[in-house]
C-alpha cells in the first residue's frame, strides 16, 4: 500500500517513514498547502491544517492513504502550549484525526508568536541554530534533547495507523 505525506519537512517524513515501513507500506512525498496560517494559533486551526494536508496528500495518483501533520500553539488558562495534530484519510472516505503531545512554551517565546512570528523562526533565534523545525524541533530544545520533533510525530502517526486498522476491521 502507498502512503502520501502532505509535507516535505524532514522531521515529519522521518516519522511516517519509520512507522509505515514497519507496516510494509511505501511512502511518497506530496507537499500541499495546509490551508491555515503558517503558525496556527489554536487547536482548531492546527487540526484543520492537518486534515487539509491529509486530504491534499491523498490526491497523489499512486497513493490510497494521505497523511497530514501540523504543528501549532494553543492557549490554555493564560499559558501557551505547542500542540501537534495529525490526520490520516483513505480513498474509501475514512478520516482519522488525532492530537499528539503538547508542551509549555516559555513566555519569551510566546510573546514573539503573538506578534506574528513563526515558531521555527523564533526557535532558531532563541537557540542560535538553523532549521530547528526540520530537526529536533522546539520540543527537542525544551526537553533538553530527550524528545525530538520526529519522535513526537512518530507516536502520533502510530495512533493514526492504529486507529485506522481498528476502524477498518470494525466497520
Ligand atoms: O509546513 P511544513 O513544511 O510541513 O513544516 P513546518 O516546520 O513549517 O511545520 P508546521 O507548519 O506544521 O509547524 C508550524 C510551526 O511550528 C514550528 N515548530 C517547531 N518545532 C515544533 C515542534 O516541536 N512541534 C510543533 N511545531 C514546531 C514549525 O517549524 C513551524 O514554524
Ligand atoms: Mg509550515
UniProtKB/TrEMBL annotation:
<dbReference type="GO" id="GO:0000166">
    <property type="term" value="F:nucleotide binding"/>
</dbReference>
<comment type="subunit">
    <text>Homodimer.</text>
</comment>
<dbReference type="InterPro" id="IPR002786">
    <property type="entry name" value="Non_canon_purine_NTPase"/>
</dbReference>
<keyword id="KW-0464">Manganese</keyword>
<dbReference type="GO" id="GO:0103023">
    <property type="term" value="F:ITPase activity"/>
</dbReference>
<dbReference type="GO" id="GO:0046872">
    <property type="term" value="F:metal ion binding"/>
</dbReference>
<comment type="function">
    <text>Phosphatase that hydrolyzes non-canonical purine nucleotides such as XTP and ITP to their respective diphosphate derivatives. Probably excludes non-canonical purines from DNA/RNA precursor pool, thus preventing their incorporation into DNA/RNA and avoiding chromosomal lesions.</text>
</comment>
<keyword id="KW-0546">Nucleotide metabolism</keyword>
<protein>
    <recommendedName>
        <fullName>Probable inosine/xanthosine triphosphatase</fullName>
        <ecNumber>3.6.1.73</ecNumber>
    </recommendedName>
</protein>
<dbReference type="Pfam" id="PF01931">
    <property type="entry name" value="NTPase_I-T"/>
</dbReference>
<dbReference type="InterPro" id="IPR029001">
    <property type="entry name" value="ITPase-like_fam"/>
</dbReference>
<feature type="domain" description="Non-canonical purine NTP phosphatase/PRRC1">
    <location>
        <begin position="6"/>
        <end position="159"/>
    </location>
</feature>
<keyword id="KW-0378">Hydrolase</keyword>
<keyword id="KW-0547">Nucleotide-binding</keyword>
<dbReference type="InterPro" id="IPR050299">
    <property type="entry name" value="YjjX_NTPase"/>
</dbReference>
<dbReference type="InterPro" id="IPR026533">
    <property type="entry name" value="NTPase/PRRC1"/>
</dbReference>
<keyword id="KW-0460">Magnesium</keyword>
<dbReference type="GO" id="GO:0009117">
    <property type="term" value="P:nucleotide metabolic process"/>
</dbReference>
<keyword id="KW-0479">Metal-binding</keyword>
<comment type="similarity">
    <text>Belongs to the YjjX NTPase family.</text>
</comment>
